[in-house]
Amino acid sequence: MDQLANLLEGFSVALTPMNLVFLLIGAILGTAVGVLPGLGSAMAVALLLPITFSLDPTGAFIMFASIYFGGLFGDSTSGILLNTPGNSSAIATSFEGHRMAKDGRAAKALGTAAIGAFTGGIIATTLVVFLSPYLVLLATLFGPAEYFALAAFAFVAISAVVAESVVRGLIALGIGLSLAMVGIDGQSGAARFTLGMPEFFDGISIIVVTVGLLAMGEVLHVASRIHREDPRAQVKTHGSPYLNWREFKQAFPAFLRGTSFGLPFGAIPVGGSEVPTFLAYGTEKKLAKRRGDTMFGTRGAIQGVAGPEAAGNATAGTAMGALLALGLPTSATAAMMLAAFQQYGMQPGPLLFERSADLVWPLLASLFVGLVMLLIINLPFASVWAKLLLVPKHYLYAGVAVFSVFGVYAIASSMKDLWLLVAIGVLGFVMRRFAIPLAPVLIAAILGPLAETELRRALAVSEGDMAILVGSPITVSLYSVMAVAILISVVQHVRHRRQAAAIPEKVTAAG
């Protein structure tokens, strides 16, 4: 009960008028920066960090909390409306969310995302308050072999489940791994696939890959078809962002499933919320196939937005717990938060709750208040954001291209990144033309370096003994589930081929 008493005391600080103003300002600014393509939640914290230097530590940390979640809310907005997620954590949400927007349900998609983000964030933050000591135990269970198994599981799950064709899924996975291999090898220091150009020594930024494939690829795809569409066709943006009872019953289980995916991933350093959001998306797609849901993958399904969005914010919530309890930043955004804490002389870790309780508990309380405030801000304004789709396509996607270029250039002020943006945009356009899925490329580009590093680290520890890769219950469980998933996927694909082959025979016999 000590946690509850400390949390109530934290609320007494967080709910003072001035701190509520800081929360409101941070929520608005974080959302606004998160919406911009190529920037996202991590950049929101980085860009807005200097404005907190003049505040007292409590006010600064409270503003950090709302910027932290505000950026995550903003990440999905541009992804849903323009297929241009502000950060890689919103990629999975963009798939079905953008389809809903094109179907005239943009406000509903944004409303679903807001509720999903709120649900995942609230549950995760509640668990952080009461279960933070156990996060230490969870993090210590994972070594190099477990991280590699987790990455391999993500590769197979995304390639086999999200992709309609296993072959196309593996092709996309290979493209992503190829992009991830460019740069200096972290173990040996050797340059790989750089064409002898120093500009490629740092590798290809995941922001460039994400914005290139999703934003520029979409711009080129739309441009190639713009004269084939009826210019008199009206885009529908009306509709309420609030879910009716039937829609809520559809979304609620997806909220819970997505949250359950996100909770454990925030405590382990696997690169952020990309893995749980893609796993949540893949799960919802699999369940949609079982129940014969024709909305998924065509007009856009609410569950495809609800699951990944809840997973992303649940991961962010437990990532904050891992940061405070362990001093372990498990994502880029959490790393920026760690820099902010250190700026004020705070060192997150096991002793933080004892030494700086007067700062930690108001921060945790402000996470709850900030999430409620963001829901109040974002839900009613979803219909306003949806009006962006009324802008004529040639203006709208020209704006997307401009903001994408600005966002990518802001990362490192490099012309190399702009040329890569165009090249990867062309790649995204070609992949759309040949129905090659984008998700495996993105997950491979994100987790490829982690998988390689952890594999080599595990083999170095075991002196080359491959048995270390299956030397713990966690790795055995992950590989077992992966084998079952592959087997089920192969059986289903064979069955679908037989059914497709049987249809022409029946037609011929009937004729």
Summarize the structure.
The protein is mainly alpha-helical.
Q: H/E order of the elements?
A: HHHHHHHHEEHHHHHHHHHHHH
> Strand share of the residues?
under 5%
Overall geometric form: globular
The value of Rg in angstroms is 23 Å
Q: What topology does this entry show?
A:
Layout: H1 2-14, H2 17-35, H3 40-48, H4 57-82, H5 91-102, H6 106-140, H7 144-162, H8 166-181, E1 183-184, E2 191-192, H9 206-225, H10 245-265, H11 274-290, H12 302-326, H13 332-343, H14 352-355, H15 357-378, H16 382-386, H17 393-412, H18 415-433, H19 439-461, H20 473-510
Antiparallel strand pairs: 1-2
Helix pairs in contact: 1-15, 2-3, 2-4, 2-15, 3-4, 3-13, 4-5, 4-6, 4-15, 5-6, 5-12, 6-10, 6-12, 6-15, 7-8, 7-11, 7-19, 7-20, 8-19, 9-17, 9-18, 10-11, 10-12, 11-12, 12-13, 17-18
Observed structural traits:
511 residues; mainly alpha; 20 helices; two-stranded antiparallel ribbon
Structure in words:
The protein is mainly alpha-helical and 511 residues long. The chain has one domain (2-471). Helices cover 73% and strands 1% of the residues. It has a two-stranded antiparallel sheet. The model is unreliable at 231-235 (pLDDT under 50). Keywords: Membrane, Transmembrane, Transmembrane helix. This is Putative tricarboxylic transport membrane protein. InterPro entries: DUF112_TM. Residues 20-442 form the DUF112 domain.
